[in-house]
Amino acid sequence: MRGPLFSLPTVMFLGALFFILIFFLFIFVQVGLITVAFSKLGLTPGQGFTLLIATLLGSGVNIPVFRSERLVPDVFVRKFRILNPQAPVEEPLQGKSLVHQTVAVNLGGCVIPVLLSLTLLARFGFNLPILLCIIIVSAATYALARPVPGVGIGIPVLIPPIITALAALIFVPGDVAPVAAYVAGSLGTLIGADLLHLATPATRKVLDAPVVSIGGAGTFDGIFITGILAVLLA
């Protein structure tokens, strides 16, 4: 009697190899789409890839701006919870007193998008239609964003890019639409989701994290994805 065509170790190896290939294919597709988005902004593939890497690495860098007078509980943030997934993300540090809340700007979610937006505006010009797009996105993201205690501002991922792309296509038709989409998606999300909420007393009461990062935490994904997807859709 003939045995099985493939042994169990062989099947497991082939299965693992398949999932690894799928994973890298997914990464290559994502990077390719992002490179296409940057090319629509007039950037070379090398410049786009450099910006992508800088943005992703910069997402973990928060630059302190000032320390407020507000006192919040000092917490220990768990970044890895594999061994105990049920453990809370944050817990008060034993024996620690209250600390002054620090307001910071995120390098990847605030500084880089703002600098790129200003560069694009200097190259293509700033006009009333682009301003209108920024106002629309700011209003939409302000309405959609919600404060998350201990974390920051959370925002849906898919709705803002659609709103941004539609605004750019309606008010800024032509070759400048992708530029308007990126600028409105980045600046509008920063203004609506972060700055306007941080200026709202009711929101500040909920944000009890030791570090409030503009463009970081919950809004980084929203800013990054909104800017990229809006360009692809525009």
From TrEMBL:
Entry keyword annotation includes Ribosomal protein: no
Transmembrane segments: 12-36, 48-66, 98-121, 128-145, 151-172, 179-199, 211-233
Alphabetical keyword list: Membrane, Transmembrane, Transmembrane helix
Keyword Nucleotide-binding attached: no
Protein name: Uncharacterized membrane protein
Native source organism of the sequence: Maridesulfovibrio ferrireducens
